[in-house]
Amino acid sequence: MTKLSLFGQFYFSYTYENNKYVLYLTLSPGIHEPQQLGLLIGLIGLPLIYFLDKQFNSGEAMKKILLSALTLITTVNVYANEPLPNWIDHSREKIVAPLEISKGESAPPSGFRLPAEYEPAQAVSIGNMAFTPMLQEIATAVVGSGTEIWISGEELNLNVKNKSLVKQLGCALDTVWMRDYGPVGITESGDLAIVDSIYRHYQYRVSDDHAPECIANNFSLINFNMPIILDGGNLMVDSVGNLFMTKITYKWNNKMSAEKINETLKEYFGVHTIHAIDYAGIPGNPLDGTGHIDMFVKLLNDETVLISQTTSPGFKEATENAVKYFKSIKTPSGNDYKILRTPGWSNGRTWYTYTNSLIVNNLALVPKFSGHDEDNKTAERAYVNGNPNLSVKMIDSDQSIIYGGSIHCVTQLIPKK
Length: 417
Hints:
By secondary structure, the chain is of the alpha/beta class. It has ten helices and 23 strands.
């Protein structure tokens, strides 16, 4: 079977068996209507069949294209397991939980804190529900760094030497977006615990929302329920108690005051200052489908921040506002932030970014995109320039990014005790 991509909007694969072609289409998140599918088949499928048939030199191309077209009508399959995007796909997802939800409230004792991503880590948690080749590459690199990999969802086969670092947890999931619904690890004097916030898609993705509790139970960890809606992709901290996010968290929790939300964040994560910046789009309608800070900002250490640079409307304003904000504040040591820029661009709803990376024990796993070799090299240099202690591994993110995320979005870091 051969797989191809066209314009980044859909993927198709084909086989030729028993004098017929079978064409499979995997559509991007924006294409679901039957009329669109029919148009794609007519404009793409039949000319493709004709081209392929000519390659076989059968001498009966036109005859076979008619036969293949009839077969195509009954054999085209839109993949039932097409990945669910970072946002809700209303054509495939329905509300299954009540609007009002509470997991209870159990704040951690004083002294617990959320470490920065660049502090020592015990594990990386992932959910094998899509993009398996990318997850295998991530997991192999994580294990190679001497870090555990915690796998929920479907079992993930890995060819690694140290099998003891691979933990198959058996937790049921709806989607791959572990960063947003997954367990947030906090530590205190050698103890590790989990903060479990309300996932913003809790009404649709119940298994995802309950994943932190399941993962915590696998390791007998205390699970502290947080009474606000919060995605991990909109949560970034340094090592001394500064928390950075976008203002979309206030929109998700619009029945609470900003002051109450900030107090809750401080109480659960052991931080002292909340920094809330603008995201691309209008309030409640982010251009990238998420509004998360990890889509355009990345702390490389307490002194250095990576921010996307783009000419794309909407995203340009948000990224430049982020630069202005970091220029207006000081680092924990009282210095100006070292601000580095990496390319970013939009194509329809898809926002391509290099800030959606994962730093785990001095290893930076950074997205790379086909056809953008110079941009990929620029991003790699930026990470090394920002933190010379990092080794950088670039990981193909062509498929995941059209669904609203890359490496950071599909991983959650568990800090070392």
